[in-house]
């Protein structure tokens, strides 16, 4: 009997708490932890054209070992540009063609794009069916598979159509990272750094020491980074599941970042790259406001650079101040017409979620980041 894997729990009221299982080779060592989460007699595993040839057979084998379970599969096109309502409809087409009923479970096998889309498809299929997250990117393992934010993009705004829908469990087989390209791996580091900046200075200090080992894919270091990230995310989600307040802090850098993702054409930047530039913009704005000192600004930039992430817009960027303002005006944190932002304030590891800041500081920051372009 293999030792139990590392388990982080997302505590939620009403018997909705769920486990995040983390470990190398979980598909082989602990397949029962996955299949036991399927309650009915059918499930639909959804993945994409990149992940399917690499990992689908392992997930299907783990599920098919359950007696009486019929496993359906669907392979979607890959990429952020495919995170749309049109593509999501293919999931419902497949489910209905196979007469999948309300007891079915959807299984999301892939990165954050698949996880967000399959979760939303589950939230609205026959008004809600179960789903399981099987994340295969760093981004999905440390952030997107946890917490139940699901949805798709709209041409006019990122993640603009979606629902809160929590998974039955998150099954993190860290061995799937062996096939992840370096660029996608670095992108996920952006959200790991975020946890340090918004609430966990000790984790940030650990990152300052260990980011080089993460880039070298050291397995033990990765296991710790994933566990500590999931613990941070689980704490925040438990405190504020539907983002009435503190959960918004998980959006550090995202208002600028989402504008960059949309304004550059979904897919030019990976989410974590856009968030890295957005985090640099937010830090610069905090410094401009006098809310952080030069040392905190420098450490923020240094960590992003150490992770191999960008902190400025590329020279050929189509972003302009007008584009930023238009896209940021539909951010989900706008309340009664006032944009609220997450900004670092005080010592490293502290931030605020506020609409109470000098708007000129935001404009000047945007101008500063756009000034080298075109
Ligand atoms: N719901 C949330 O809380 C939340 C949090 C963070 C990010 N997100 C969303 O997640 C998305 C970004 O996620 P992502 O960075 O995982 O992008 P992604 O899902 O597009 O994956 C990145 C690339 O890696 C490929 N890939 C995935 N696993 C692989 C593997 N093991 N080996 C080789 N290739 C693999 C994918 O096919 C894709 O080409 C964005 O849409 C973002 O908005 C959501
Ligand atoms: O879980 C959350 O809450 C987050 O904000 C996590 C973010 O990293 C993630 O990118 C999320 O999808 C952004 O949410 P949105 O509400 O700004 O679309
Ligand atoms: Zn994010």
UniProtKB/TrEMBL annotation:
**Catalysed reaction, written as an equation:** 7-phospho-2-dehydro-3-deoxy-D-arabino-heptonate = 3-dehydroquinate + phosphate
Q: What compartments host this protein? A: Cytoplasm
Q: In what residue span(s) does the 3-dehydroquinate synthase N-terminal domain sit?
A: 74-186
Give the EC number: 4.2.3.4
Pfam assignment, any one: DHQ_synthase
Which keywords annotate this record? Amino-acid biosynthesis, Aromatic amino acid biosynthesis, Cobalt, Cytoplasm, Lyase, Metal-binding, NAD, Nucleotide-binding, Zinc
List the pathway annotation: Metabolic intermediate biosynthesis; chorismate biosynthesis; chorismate from D-erythrose 4-phosphate and phosphoenolpyruvate: step 2/7
Record has Zinc as a keyword = yes
Q: What is its main location?
A: cytoplasm
Q: Which cofactor does it need?
A: NAD(+); Co(2+)
The enzyme class is lyase
- Where is the 3-dehydroquinate synthase C-terminal domain positioned along the sequence? 188-334
Work out whether the entry's keyword set contains Manganese.
no
Note the PANTHER family from the entry. Answer: 3-DEHYDROQUINATE SYNTHASE, 3-DEHYDROQUINATE SYNTHASE, CHLOROPLASTIC
Into which family does the record put it?
Answer: Belongs to the sugar phosphate cyclases superfamily. Dehydroquinate synthase family.
From the Swiss-Prot or TrEMBL record, give the protein name.
Answer: 3-dehydroquinate synthase
């Amino acid at each position: 009997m293999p030792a139990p894997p590392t388990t982080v729990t997302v505590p939620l009221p009403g018997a909705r708490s769920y486990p995040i299982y983390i470990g190398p080779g979980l598909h082989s060592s602990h397949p029962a932890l996955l299949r036991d989460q399927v309650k009915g007699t059918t499930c639909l595993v959804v993945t994409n054209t990149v992940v399917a040839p690499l990992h689908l057979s392992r997930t299907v084998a783990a599920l098919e070992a359950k007696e009486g379970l019929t496993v359906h599969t669907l392979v979607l096109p890959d990429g952020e540009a495919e995170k749309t309502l049109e593509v999501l409809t293919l999931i419902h087409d497949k489910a209905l063609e196979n007469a999948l009923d309300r007891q079915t479970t959807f299984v999301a096998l892939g990165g954050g794009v698949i996880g967000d889309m399959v979760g939303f498809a589950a939230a609205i299929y026959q008004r809600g069916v179960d789903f399981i997250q099987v994340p295969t990117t760093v981004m999905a393992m440390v952030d997107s598979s946890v917490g139940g934010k699901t949805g798709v993009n709209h041409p006019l705004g990122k993640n603009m159509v979606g629902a809160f829908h929590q998974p039955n469990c998150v099954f993190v087989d860290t061995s799937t990272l062996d096939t992840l390209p370096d660029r996608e791996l670095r992108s996920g580091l952006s959200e790991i750094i975020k946890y340090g900046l918004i609430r966990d200075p000790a984790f940030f200090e650990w990152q300052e020491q260990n980011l080089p080992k993460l880039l070298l894919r050291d397995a033990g270091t990765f296991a710790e980074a994933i566990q500590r990230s999931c613990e941070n995310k689980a704490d925040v989600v438990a405190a504020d599941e539907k983002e009435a307040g503190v959960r918004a802090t998980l959006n550090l850098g995202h208002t600028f970042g989402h504008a960059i993702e949309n304004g550059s054409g979904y897919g030019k930047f990976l989410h974590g790259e856009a968030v890295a530039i957005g985090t640099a913009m937010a830090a610069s704005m905090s410094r401009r406001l006098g809310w952080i000192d030069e040392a905190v600004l420098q450490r923020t930039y240094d960590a992003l650079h150490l992770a191999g992430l960008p902190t400025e817009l590329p020279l050929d960027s189509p972003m302009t101040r007008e584009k930023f303002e238009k896209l940021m005006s539909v951010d989900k944190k706008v309340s009664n017409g006032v944009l609220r932002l997450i900004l670092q304030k005080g010592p490293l590891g502290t931030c605020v979620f506020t609409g109470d800041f000098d708007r000129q500081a935001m404009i000047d920051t945007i101008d500063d980041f756009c000034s080298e372009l075109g």
